Amino acid sequence: FSKVTQAFIDLQVVLQGAEIDNAADKFEKLRITLTQSEGSVQGAERALSELYRIAQSASVPIEAMTVSYQRYTRAVAAMGGSQQEALDFTEALAKALRLSNATAQETGSVMRQLSQAFNKGKLNGDEFVSVSENGGRVLDYLARQIGKSRGELQEMSKAGALTDKVLLQLGKALEKIRGDFDVLPKNFSDAWVNFR
Fold this sequence. Notes:
single chain; 196 residues; mainly alpha; 11 helices
């Protein structure tokens, strides 16, 4: 190797090492945050393990998904639901977004809009429009699950009736979403998201 080639190789090794260290730091921060929100180390470890599995299978960045999961889990808990229900909703959402061909940016946007909807108790206005535009299959699965059309969902949104309780019904469509998702071809960019 020439000195320039060797220097380039050495630089790549250093950068990859830094990226691995950065990923480890991010993962530890997620674990700490989940421990606080779940109330126990065991609950946090289970949630993080499941969120990591979901992120890997759906090729969704785990950071955005974890932040959104924390907001969903508060809504589920307020309704007397379980951690598993929050995880099912999160997985259904991530995979429905992937089935919608949503980009990483669109996925993050939809997750953020839905987490805001959970904070206020309903999905309406610009949040509904964003979910409709960037993650259309999410609304298709939800509509099918509750026996409504997309148009009826839009009317529910305008009337303030698309509540967090209704939105959580997406988690009950998980088996159908998994079935559709399992036939989706994987590609290199999916593997790259998983690596990062």
